[in-house]
Amino acid sequence: MLENKNILIGITGGIAAYKICNLIRLYKKSGANVRVVVTPNALNFVTKLTLQTLSGNEVYVDNFEIDEYKPEHIALTESDIFVIAPASANTIGKLANGICDNLLLSTACAFARPILIVPAMNENMWNNKFVQENMTKLKTAGYEVLEPASGFLACGVNGIGRMREVEDIFEKTVAMFSQKQILKGKKILITAGGTREKIDPVRYITNSSSGKMGIALADNAYKMGADVTLISTFGVEKPYRNIVTPTALEMEKAVKENLSAKDCVIMSAAVSDYRVENVSEQKIKKQGGELNLKLVENPDILKEICQERINLASHQEAVAPLEGEMSEGQRGVNIKPYNEEHREAQYNSGTSQLCSDQRSTYVAEFDKQYGTEANEEHREAQYNSGISQLCSDQKSTYVVVGFCAESENLIENAKTKIQKKGCDYLIANDISRKDIGFNSDENEVYIIDKSLNIKHIEKDTKENIAKRILEEIFE
Ligand code: PMT
């Protein structure tokens, strides 16, 4: 199962350290090459000789003891996974704060591949506010965690804090290796959270979206190898790119600006359909009686990016025959002979080598073939769509996935919505239920494709639902 995998185990000072001897045996039995790095305290619980004998490799404690032409912590990072078990409160705190005062910590700090943390400690320590804050930090930074179990603890009490059994650690490691990299090389843009439309400096219109569904999608896409951009209504600390856009208009702008070269866009954000027309600069005072707020419609981002895809495809189709007759230099302006803005940008970036008379020949050629009227119309459509920063790497084939939040007639409404919006898939969820959807850790969804085929994914954690959605779409 783990043939030829290079596993690095990090052992910290805790009674559960002795159990790691069995973990090493499990890894070795399944074909892995195991190296071990320990904190000095770990050696109070297990000997270097035992770990060395079981792993068949040198065991590392201090910096400056590996006989290689590389700094020690860097040499150790050339492993496929780093499993830190047991992970003490002390090590967790240092990892979460970038402290590197021993070899295990500096190795973790420089480790660019998956890290699995398996905590073990006394119940009160585990429940300590700062330990929990550190755990949250590690999780949000992309560390995998195998949470401790409840049971009899070495300090003589029953409670939470027991290191998970080595069989569980082994299985988790296997699961981490079997994470399919189905999105390797793909660029994905995902939106998350509920937009906040301002009324005045202190009040706004919003909804109950927590962003959990969108973040679960982004986390999973990242683990599957995608280059992820998350556009969310609040900031998150993640190993991928995050752009914060509290309002629908800001989200629209960010989505359009970041559309270039994407393979897929997933709109899981709950975007407000309306915003207040005139946002008050000052806090609105109680005046007695009614207060009327005029709302205006927000852009429908999902619909716009689907429309933009159609515009792009038809444009690329229109210029394709011409492109065939063009020289390399002429290709620099192939997409928009009439779009002054775009052409200027190309001149400035130095990509176009056309001199002005070549340009006019090209434009004249285009006119002859397609007629000036058609070109004007086409240009207008592009301007009107509001997405003018098309680049030569902009794809017209990106997959668009929308979400559909309904409180009644879920499937029926979702079928109508996918046709109206023009996306490839719509993920329908019932937001009238308290146990799923808005602000819940779980969801239950129906994936509807543009041929109106439906796939039901039963209630599960948003993590697992997100994984299933991505697998259904990309496998
Ligand atoms: O964030 P959580 O608490 O985890 O909850 C998850 C969720 C319930 C918010 C999520 O699963 C979900 O259903 N998201 C879509 C919410 C929504 O706005 O649905 P809608 O049916 O109103 O919109 C349909 C689609 O159009 C959505 O993809 C939405 O992002 C998009 N839209 C909507 C309005 C608008 N002005 N622009 C849009 O792009």
What sort of overall outline do the alpha carbons produce when their principal axes are compared? elongated
CATH topology of the largest domain: Rossmann fold
Which runs of at least 5 residues are low in confidence (pLDDT < 50)? 323-359, 379-393
| Ligands | ligand PMT
Query: How far from one another are the termini?
Result: 22 Å
Describe the oligomeric state of these chains in a short phrase: single chain
Tell me roughly what share of residues is in helical segments: 25-40%
| Radius of gyration based on Cα positions | 28 Å
Number of domains: 3
Share in β-strands = 15-25%
Number of strands: 20
CATH architecture of the largest domain: 3-Layer(aba) Sandwich
Strand order across the largest sheet = 13-12-9-14-17-18-19-20
Instruction: Quickly give the structural class.
Output: alpha/beta
| CATH homologous superfamily annotation of the largest domain | CoaB-like
Walk me through this protein's architecture.
The chain is 38% helix and 20% strand. The chain is α/β, with parallel strands linked by helices and 475 residues long. The chain folds into three domains: 6-177, Flavin prenyltransferase-like (Rossmann fold, 3-Layer(aba) Sandwich), CATH 3.40.50; 182-282 and 292-299 and 398-475, CoaB-like (Rossmann fold, 3-Layer(aba) Sandwich); 307-384, no CATH class. It has an eight-stranded mixed sheet, sandwiched between helices. A six-stranded parallel sheet has the order 3-2-1-4-5-6, with helices on both faces. Helix 1 (20-29) crosses helix 8 (166-177), helix 9 (212-223) crosses helix 17 (462-474) and helix 14 packs across helix 15. It starts with 5 loop residues before the first strand and ends with a helix. Ligand PMT is lined by residues 209-213, 248, 267-271, 273, 298, 300-302, 402-405, 429, 431, 437-439. The site of ligand PMT has 25 residues, from helix 9, helix 11 and strand 17.
